[in-house]
């Protein structure tokens, strides 16, 4: 697996899809422990990528609302 520093930036949708695939594999219960741990770690990385995208989107919305509120005064 590549590290977040060496892989290209994933879109939110790509990260979410990969995370969903990992969750499905882990929930199946048929994955050896070592692989489960690797999948868990990758899932944590992907969750951070998704959260970063969501935080960025929220910041943009908040900034646009603040700007709009400032113009309404």
Short description:
This protein has helices at 12-28, 33-72. The protein is an all-alpha fold and 73 residues long.
Question: How is this structure best described in words?
Answer:
- By secondary structure, this protein is mainly α.
- It has a single domain, classed as Helix Hairpins (Orthogonal Bundle), CATH 1.10.287.
- The protein contains two helices and no strands.
- The longest helix is centred in the last third of the chain and has 40 residues, at 33-72.
- The radius of gyration is 17 Å and the shape is rod-shaped.
- The termini are far apart.
Provide keyphrases for this structure.
Helix Hairpins; disordered N terminus; 73 residues; mainly alpha; 2 helices
The CATH architecture term is Orthogonal Bundle
**Structural class of the helix and strand makeup?**
mainly alpha
Q: Mind describing the biggest β-sheet? A: none
Number of extended strands: 0
The name CATH uses for the topology is: Helix Hairpins
Q: How many domain modules?
A: 1
Given as residue ranges, the uncertain stretches (5+ residues, pLDDT < 50) are: 1-6
Q: What's the level 1 CATH class?
A: Mainly Alpha
Instruction: Count helical runs.
Output: 2
Question: What integer value in Å does the Rg equal?
Answer: 17 Å
> What is the overall silhouette?
rod-shaped
- Tell me the series of helices and strands, N- to C-terminal: HH
Strand content: under 5%
Mean of residue pLDDT?
90
Spatial gap, N to C terminus: 52 Å
In helices, the fraction of residues equals over 70%
